[in-house]
């Protein structure tokens, strides 16, 4: 008994029969043991396992036939697709529109450079042990400026270094990433400020934050996009106007910030009162207490909620179609209205679904990795 007690690290708990000093439970070793304990441990589990296997056997072969074995991958129109499977020639012919919308073909190098700049800007933010991290952080701070000038240009005159590309020409995955990344980057700090303001001891600040959060969370995103695109210009002075995409970015960022504020407020409420008292006993000011002690713990606790909000925001970018911006899903709907490709909605939406899944699944896996990396004893 004393050996077992000594081997237990403080705070560690093991399920019955799984202590490291004890042999594994009988029947759980090897492939057969794993199958018995996880898939056939009881009669209901056995029935569910057999039903799942039956469903996979029945559904997977037809799906593979449609997706690959009986599909057509080349062609100029739907009439060139003569097999019984999918007509992926649509994706082959219209891939540029899916990715970049109507962005000029001779200027696509700017999109590639902007994508490289974005990737280099995200590296020092997402990972801490990378070479030249301080230099890359400078690129991260300059990303809004470099990205804006790369994508939109510097002018239309003969002396312009980069020809202007109007935002109505942006579309597809490019527009989805612009809206999604901007909303994610902007909503997190705004949400932190709103969460702190809602828990503030200053009545005016608290009332303003509560009003903003509850009002924004009480209306759908479509309404905010419609207001930012149609109603806001009516209240501006004559001759003053903002780009439609800029108004969309502001609306999406504020909408996501309201939800982010509630997620972060939950993390702040989960911090024990003793942490605040200990910080105050050390003589830390309010901002130092939040920056050094409270916020790091609160943000770590609510990583799943934060990433969930980011994933929801990335998928909600499809709603910008209502104000005339053609994101990835909007392009998918537009492409299948072409007379050459009518009736290929399954292929178009399947391609878009795969792209959305790749990005959302990537964010989900990163959040799991980050939780494990920052785990300091909260996990149970």
UniProtKB/TrEMBL annotation:
GO biological-process terms attached to the record: amino acid transport
CDD domains, alphabetized: TM_PBP2
Residue spans of biased composition, Polar residues class: 1-10
GO molecular function annotation: transmembrane transporter activity
InterPro entries on file: AA_ABC_transptr_permease_3TM, ArtM/GltK/GlnP/TcyL/YhdX-like, MetI-like, MetI-like_sf
Localization per record: Cell inner membrane; Cell membrane
Topology within the bilayer: Multi-pass membrane protein
Keyword Membrane: yes
Region of interest called Disordered, as start-end residue ranges on this chain: 1-22
Keyword hit for Ligase: no
Top-level taxonomy: Bacteria, Pseudomonadati, Pseudomonadota, Alphaproteobacteria, Rhodospirillales
PROSITE patterns per UniProt: ABC_TM1
Domain ABC transmembrane type-1: 173-367
Annotated keywords: Cell membrane, Membrane, Transmembrane, Transmembrane helix, Transport
Similarity field: Belongs to the binding-protein-dependent transport system permease family. HisMQ subfamily.
Gene Ontology CC terms: ATP-binding cassette (ABC) transporter complex
Superkingdom assignment: Bacteria
Transmembrane intervals: 46-64, 109-127, 134-152, 172-197, 218-236, 289-311, 317-336, 348-368
Protein name according to UniProt: Amino acid ABC transporter permease
Pfam families xrefs: BPD_transp_1
